[in-house]
Amino acid sequence: MQGQMWSYIFKRVLLMIPTLLGVLTLTFAVVQFVPGGPVEQLMLELKGKGDAAVSGAESSGGGSNYRGRQGVDVERLAEVKALYGFDKPPVERYFMMLKRFAQFDLGESYYQHQSVWKLVVSKLPVSISIGLWTFFLTYLVSIPLGIAKAVRDGSRFDAITSTMILVGYAIPGFVLGVLLLVIFGGGSFLQIFPLRGLTSDNWSELSMMGKVMDYLWHLVLPITASVLGSFAVITMLTKNSFLEEIRKQYVLTARAKGLTEKQVLWKHVFRNALLPLVTGFPAAFIGAFFTGSLLIETLFSLDGLGLLSYESVMRRDYPVVFGTLYLFTLIGLFTKLISDLCYVYIDPRIQFGAGGRS
Fold it and tell me: What's the pTM value of the predicted model, to 2 decimals?
């Protein structure tokens, strides 16, 4: 078993390489045809122009035409292209990027003059705060609620809770966030919660308990807007998983042996029913660090990874775009591997054969 597992891990790691290369290659190829690259944007800034109309010159992004280079001194243009590395052919730039990534060098931002690593680390506290609280609250509420709904399937409690969570699921997080700000954030009604950021301006002057309370107080509205829509998926998945197990033959056999419903539920059903949920924990947990909501971050003025990714795409900050893409794709691939290994650990009946998990 252990030899098969290590063989499976080795094969999966090898398969990550072409997957990662495919993602980076496709994105790099698309970027070559995107108009308004960093060279053009800088030249427009130097000329004091704000519009980006299309004209008859080649773009630093690739084969598009762009007005940003018109009327620019050729030598100055060559200096700017060399500054950003666009004086080299696309193929050479592509392999230079792969070489850096192989050394885990994500490059340096064109506009913020910091390494991509530093930018990611600086944005992590916000994304971790939103992601982890959303993750824990979702599972802490949804799993017990899903179990209760499965046990009381068809009851009034089941119908009422289903209606409530489906209504919450139907409301987009951004719309709910606006509604919460209007009602509780000093909009047209009450001013109970702060409007922006994760801490107050006088946070450094507060006591330790004051800092904790201030931090939690700032999280109430964005976490509520983020987490409400997540309840429905996990709750219904938990309920359906438990109902499927409860209707199986081994449960009927356990009941026939005289076991109580509580013993049947916790000793037999619980482990098997939670299997699809527990195996998804690694992906959900790691994803909490890196999948912040752009709209929630923008609405509540939270400077996290979601906002960083959006701004880097809009400003054509290619080192940040490719660096974060490489990092997040790599983490996603390893997280999927960990999820599969958790599946085997939780259910020893599953074996890894020559073709992988079987």
Answer: 0.69
